[in-house]
Design goal:
With 532 residues, the protein is of the alpha/beta class. 38% of the residues lie in helices and 23% in strands. A 7-stranded mixed sheet has the order 17-20-21-14-13-23-24, sandwiched between helices. The protein has a 6-stranded mixed sheet with strand order 10-9-8-11-12-26, sandwiched between helices. A 3-stranded mixed sheet has the order 1-5-4. Helix 7 links the parallel strand 9 and strand 10. Helix 1 crosses helix 8, helix 5 packs parallel to helix 6 and helix 6 packs across helix 16. The model has no long low-confidence stretch (mean pLDDT 97). It binds glyceraldehyde-3-phosphate. Glyceraldehyde-3-phosphate binds next to loops.
Length: 532
């Protein structure tokens, strides 16, 4: 049981955090309307000693009017391409970003504390999420400098001088997911900002208070209206923003159904660019010559890190029938050895689930599969404790089961056995998703054929290792309902910008003007200055 004295000092909650302000036009506007309560999935004793979800604080439930005010602020800051931010010298935008990240680093403890309480990420993973985000910002700055150095020149072709750079797209609506409410949201927001776009950002449904310590920093680090932060229900806040037709980029990490609903509201579909990281059903394929110990340890991390609540999680395991018994035995032993507890306890791997109704959903998947012939093959599978459910390993799973089709995004692992690899390739080709795959084995003849096909069905083939997004310099994308655009430190800068250039015929008249433009340093775009 969680009692106050079992909570480490640095994670103790002093008082509920009432975040009654939102950020529009660099003003922290006080909201006097309806507030939404924020609870932690971690149970603590109330005044009567009964265990209940810990009350963490409140956030505004803004309405359409405030959402549109935030949009208006972002539009004014972009100012039809004339705004201070989109026309600013690259070197100066970088200075704003450097100021932001320096201040953000001072908020590590507060942000990590709320990451742990709000979404039950283990303390180590919460710290990793924060540090990884800081690294991402620094890497983005460095990459943008490189990109700018490459553009600090003129090129000549067909008698035309061209000075080509990447320019911003306009106003970005940015929506992140609850499982990485800091990192994934910032992997959208930061590249969008540094490229000169202006933004309206709505924190994820769970993992919302952790943004509070950063509001002042946004306000102090960027010009008016460049970053606007709104709170509330997606339908009330995001829908009118999309309907206005003024959004140039929908940047969303979440479910394809939300992305589809939001983009369909936009009246000008060719104006709207999409940067989407969506759901996936990444398979693990265990070939007959696989190193079983290695496959087991990678599949444990791949299927159940953060209780399986990762878009990159392994969500279905295919094991060759010759080794299925051995793999299943060792894998289920390892699953049952995983420690459940509060996120700050040593060695804890499994924690309570933040989404209301998630335990019931996982149970529904288990019941559906077992009613159709699968068994829960690990001893602890499906054990319940309030808002926690112990991971259930289901075998043998067939295509008629919901857990085969749906992205479970939680602690249940479907296993299928196979004897013909072509059947799996057909399954992957027929799937709605196409993010990544893991293959375990060593026979080069078999691997080469598999790799050559799989790279055409997904966007990352992991050899003898689980699926993952990182390192963040590598391209992160997917096919079909798994993604639109590519994210990575470098690719995200491209996704949030467009190539745009000045061209002039090579003659004395134009060349003289170009030279004057360069010498005068009056244009922030026409510049061959080299950022060190
Ligand atoms: O939820 C999806 C994340 O992008 C996964 O990232 O592989 O680093 O956990 P990760």
């Amino acid at each position: 049981m969680t009692t106050i004295d079992t909570i480490p000092q640095n994670l103790q909650l002093n008082a509920p955090l009432h975040q009654d302000r939102y950020l529009v036009n660099n003003e922290l506007v006080q909201w006097k309307g309806e507030m939404a309560n924020v609870y932690s999935p971690i149970l603590t004793p109330n005044a009567d000693g009964e265990l209940e979800q810990t009350f963490l604080g409140t956030v505004p439930n803004l309405e359409e009017k405030q959402a549109l005010e935030a949009l208006d602020a972002a539009c004014k800051a972009y100012d039809k391409g004339q705004g201070t931010w989109p026309t600013m010298k690259v070197a100066d935008r970088i200075k704003h970003m450097e100021a932001f990240v320096e201040k953000m680093k001072t908020k590590r403890d507060e942000v990590v504390k709320y990451l742990v309480w709000e979404i039950c990420k283990t303390l180590a993973d919460a710290e990793k999420e924060f540090d990884r985000t800081i690294d991402y910002i620094y890497d983005t700055i460095e990459d943008y400098k490189n990109m700018d150095r490459d553009s600090a020149r003129f090129e000549k072709n067909g008698g035309i001088h061209a000075h080509i750079r990447r320019g911003p797209l306009g106003v970005v609506l940015c929506l992140g997911p609850y499982n990485y409410p800091l990192n994934e949201t910032f992997c959208l927001l930061i590249p969008a900002l540094i490229m000169g776009n202006t933004t309206v950002f709505k924190p994820a449904k769970h993992g919302v208070l952790l943004i509070s310590p950063l509001l002042e920093i946004f306000k102090d680090s960027f010009p008016k209206g460049v970053v606007n932060v709104v709170y509330g229900r997606g339908r009330v806040v995001a829908s009118p923003i999309m309907k206005s037709g003024k959004v140039d980029v929908l940047a969303l990490i979440g479910h394809s159904s939300s992305a589809n609903a939001l983009q369909s509201l936009h009246p000008k579909s060719n104006r709207l660019r999409l940067v989407l990281g969506l759901e996936a059903k990444n398979p693990a394929i265990i070939l007959p010559d696989a190193d079983i110990d290695l496959a087991v340890s990678e599949c444990i991390a791949g299927t159940l890190s953060y209780n399986g609540q990762r878009c990159t999680a392994l969500k279905i395991v295919y094991v060759h029938e010759d080794i299925a018994d051995e793999f299943n035995k060792r894998y289920t032993e390892s699953v049952d050895a995983l420690k459940f507890g509060n996120p700050w306890e040593d060695g804890v791997k499994l924690t309570p689930l933040p989404e209301p109704g998630k335990v019931e959903y996982i149970q529904e998947l288990i019941n559906d599969a077992t009613s159709k012939g699968a068994k829960v093959i690990n001893a602890k599978g499906g054990e319940l404790l309030d808002n926690f459910i112990f991971p259930a390993v289901l075998y043998p799973v067939t295509k008629s089961m919901k857990v085969y089709e749906e992205e479970q995004f939680g602690p249940v692992v479907p296993i299928r056995s196979f004897n013909k690899i072509d059947d799996i390739l057909d399954d992957i080709a027929d799937s709605n998703y196409g993010q990544q795959v893991s293959i375990f084995g060593k026979d080069v003849d078999q691997l080469s054929r598999l790799i050559d096909t799989l790279v055409n069905l997904v966007c990352r083939v992991n050899l003898n290792s689980s699926c993952q997004r990182g390192p963040d310099v590598f391209p992160f994308t997917g096919r079909k309902d798994s993604a639109v655009s590519t994210l990575s430190v470098h690719d995200a800068l491209r996704s949030f910008s467009i190539r745009t250039f000045i061209a002039s015929k090579d003659n004395d008249y134009n060349n003289g003007i170009l030279e004057d433009l360069l010498k005068s340093k009056k244009s922030n775009f026409v510049s061959t200055d080299y950022i060190l």
